[in-house]
Design a protein that fits this description.
This protein has 370 residues and is of the alpha/beta class. The protein has 14 helices and 14 strands. It is globular and about 65 Å long.
């Protein structure tokens, strides 16, 4: 069995705090994609049926499947010493409601991985989940990508991305990195409207109109792929754009080492792990001004934010840094230094403090705490 690599890896580190992790999640048929990660022995998948989607019949199917989600979750919660719920998600919403009714387990942690303070309207389900996490009697600690505090149970947690050793190695590999020609832009993410891959390509084309010698690497797949290919072909820049599809960590790290800028004109995010991963390799991120991203860049001077729907602003910010090597180097060094905040070691220590776990808990101590 395999799962989304960032989630499985996060569970691998959390297994240092717990003897066993049982992951309740939808199981999709077919071969695992290249960016998936196999579950290690200490993590067991409790498979449920995928449900939900944009169509009315999908939503009706979710209502039917919610009864099965409830049955599985009630069984698993009764056995657990602690629960970790990842939102926003369909199964996460069911689990949050159950926590308002059930007494076990006592140790409860809910992670809201999306944009905690969106500027505009988003999915009704997302709004409902944020409302529940702020005010419902779920008796859980809630971690978010925001400094907003609407209660003592809400904590600002950064999204862990790599180990301390991986961060150090990235620093060593890029200590002499400098602006060189061609300028390398990198986009990593699902090729859809929300992530803004077409806007990233438009930013690239604007830079070429400004006579900037630039190349664009695109990592990911998604529904906007055909439109992206058509835009690249109509502009006659196939020689300067490379589509990679999904890549494993080693291949992606190679692109991080080469890149000067990450371009992500996203319209909705919590904190994208690919941004901190790139920062570790002294890549300067230029990201949509959403969620906690402007606040973090403002404190660390490690990146640039621009209106997500204005590719020309992305291009102008990149062009300014390209023309000033010292300014780009300062941003790149700040990005690498700030990336240390996203290590799993820091994350585990924050989890220990939040849940009041001993530094080296034994199974008996954890059972007594529960």
């Amino acid at each position: 069995m395999a799962g989304w690599a960032p989630v499985v890896r996060e569970f691998e580190y959390l297994s240092e705090l717990f003897d066993e992790i049982r992951h309740v999640a939808p199981l999709h048929p077919g071969a695992a994609p290249k960016h998936a990660r196999r579950y290690p022995p200490q993590i067991e998948l409790v498979a449920i049926k995928p449900a939900g989607g944009p169509r009315s019949r999908d939503k009706f199917g979710l209502l039917i499947e919610a009864a099965n989600y409830t049955r599985v979750l009630v069984h698993e919660l009764a056995r657990a010493d602690a629960v970790f719920i990842r939102c926003p998600s369909n199964v996460g919403l069911v689990a949050v409601f159950l926590l308002t009714l059930l007494r076990r387990p006592r140790l409860r942690w809910i992670k809201y991985a999306g944009d905690w303070t969106p500027a505009g309207n988003d999915h009704l389900s997302y709004r409902l989940q944020r409302l529940c996490l702020r005010y419902a009697p779920h008796r859980a600690e809630v971690t978010v990508n925001s400094s907003e505090r609407t209660g003592a149970h809400i904590h600002n947690f950064l999204n862990p991305s790599y180990s301390q050793d991986e961060w150090r190695k990235a620093a060593e590999l890029t200590q002499h990195k400098s602006i060189s020609r061609p300028i390398r832009l990198l986009f990593v993410g699902r090729l859809d409207k929300a992530k803004g891959v077409i806007r990233a390509a438009q930013c690239f084309l604007e830079l070429r109109r400004r006579d900037c010698d630039v190349r664009l690497d695109i990592v990911g797949e998604g529904p906007e792929g055909p439109a992206l290919d058509a835009l690249i072909q109509s502009a006659g820049v196939e020689h300067a754009v490379r589509r990679h599809g999904w890549l494993d960590n080693a291949e992606l790290n190679r692109l991080y080492r080469q890149a000067h800028f990450m371009v992500l004109p996203t319209s909705s995010e919590g904190w994208p792990k690919v941004v901190s991963e790139a920062m570790a390799f002294r890549v300067v991120p230029v990201i949509g001004a959403v969620s906690c991203i402007p606040e973090f860049f403002g404190k660390t001077a490690s990146g640039v934010c621009a209106p997500f729907d204005q590719p020309i602003c992305f291009a102008a910010a990149i062009d300014e840094l390209v023309r000033n090597d010292a300014k780009w180097r300062a941003k790149a060094d700040n990005a690498q230094a700030a990336a240390e905040r996203f290590t799993y070691e820091r994350h585990l220590e924050n989890v220990r403090r939040m849940l009041n776990l001993p530094s080296n808990p034994t199974a008996r101590q954890r059972a007594e705490a529960a």
